[in-house]
Amino acid sequence: MSFSDLGLAPELLRAIADQGYTEPTPVQAKAIPPILQGQDVMAAAQTGTGKTAGFTLPMLHRLLEFANTSVSPARHPVRALILTPTRELAAQVQDSVKTYGKHIALRSAVVYGGVHIDPQIAELRAGVEILVATPGRLLDHLGQKTVNLSQVQFLVLDEADRMLDMGFLPDIKRILATLPAKRQSLLFSATYSDEIRGLAKQLLTDPVSVEVARRNSATETVTHLVYKVESAAKRDLLNHLIKSRDMRQVLVFCSPKIGANRLASKLDKAGDGAARRPRHRPP
């Protein structure tokens, strides 16, 4: 199968060709056709499977009829909303929208926390059809009435499982309450957990299920090893593994916070240059 077999517009096929792609990934081949038909989709796909293009391409296709070069903000209401859990992912999705939509006269913007809000307000007031956002910052804009979501026709929840893990469910529900009931909704998640299925029931209508990874399966690019060791020897083992394997970047999860502080201090004294990152408020 090639991208041209999926029924995408010539402008999109041109942008895909510009990137050197010819064949869709499995998640793209399965998700794009029902999205083009206007159906809700619930997709299980891990990072690196091409899922972002899997919803970006058909979204741009369905918004083609609204493309225009008018300078009037009224001609550019928000018609598509993409929610992501982090600002890093939001920026990546925005890059994808710009990459594949470069031959289409649709405006897009990204809003997330951790940066000044005024430039975002100016961009929103100028009018955009596609808005990529993290829940917290989007609620800030809604509270200041700097964004209007009453004409949203296309909603995407990307990495929905991470959003639930980060405690965004109340924020998501507040955002959903501002959207039109009649819309096309897509939910992308790494797994189909019970929590995700519960959210899907609230969000989607007769969704098409797309699954390209086994439920709760780990990515194939990660090797899992287990070491059975006494609790008191864990730090020494970790230090040994780091030094013996010349590990340059290591992410260690531990609990509670005092344990993280002690471990970081021990590794730092051993010359491993450890740093601790505490939990912070989601963007």
Would you write up a description of this structure?
The chain is built from eleven helices and seven strands. By secondary structure, it is α/β, with parallel strands linked by helices. The model is unreliable at 279-283 (pLDDT under 50). Strands 3-4-2-5-6-1-7 form a seven-stranded parallel sheet, with helices on both faces. Strand 3, helix 5 (118-126) and strand 4 (130-133) form a beta-alpha-beta unit.
Offer a quick outline of the entry.
40% of the residues lie in helices and 11% in strands. The chain has 283 residues and is of the alpha/beta class.
Give the key terms:
283 residues, alpha/beta, seven-stranded parallel β-sheet, 11 helices, globular, disordered C terminus
Overall pLDDT level: 89
Q: What's the number of helices?
A: 11
Structural class: alpha/beta
Q: How would you write the strand order of the largest sheet?
A: 3-4-2-5-6-1-7
Number of strands: 7
Question: What percent of residues adopt helix (DSSP H or I)?
Answer: 25-40%
What is the CA–CA distance across the termini?
Answer: 39 Å
